[in-house]
Amino acid sequence: MDLQELMRDGEWTTEPVRAEWGPDGELLVEAREESDAWRVTSYGFVHDNAHALLAPLGTSEAVEVTFQLDFDQQFDQAGLMIRVDETTWIKAGIEFSDGAAQVGAVVTHGFSDWSVAPVTDWMGREVTVRASRDGDAVTIRARVADEPWRLVRVAPLSPTADARAGLFCCAPTRPGLVVRFVAHRRSEPDSSLH
């Protein structure tokens, strides 16, 4: 499933300001101000209005999303999301936090958690985030260009969960964030964790 198929067959969790094709076949998505995905932990609020374009994800399938990392405002974020319902989901990708691009993931089972690591050398480059679902786990990796994959997270997900997956972005603190998504792919899951 490529970007065009995802646009045709996927559904938005929350409609963005706009989603349109760019001159090179990229998908330009403009996020609404105060869009986000988070449940309770530490902050005490629930935000469930991230812009995620999702299609069904098999119980043994991988999804990849590639986007241009050219955003630099506090909490700007883009990547991929796997969603079961409003209390069970995973988002993974790049979030600009505390002055730096950070690769990370939020895993939510009733309550959200958060993990990040700085990737300042990824700025201005195309980032690919991959989530591989198999058995009771989702393995999340990320990279730029053809560099080696970096393990971001291994998270639980019930093998019987009816999940959807695809691209996402949100802009918790400002208007005007436009993310340039350049690819969406589906494939067989990774054969091993390492």
Automatic annotation (TrEMBL):
Gene3D superfamilies recorded: 2.60.120.200
Lineage, highest ranks first: Bacteria, Bacillati, Actinomycetota, Actinomycetes, Micrococcales
Pfam family, one: DUF1349
Protein name per the record: DUF1349 domain-containing protein
Highest taxon in the source lineage: Bacteria
Classification via SUPFAM superfamilies: Concanavalin A-like lectins/glucanases
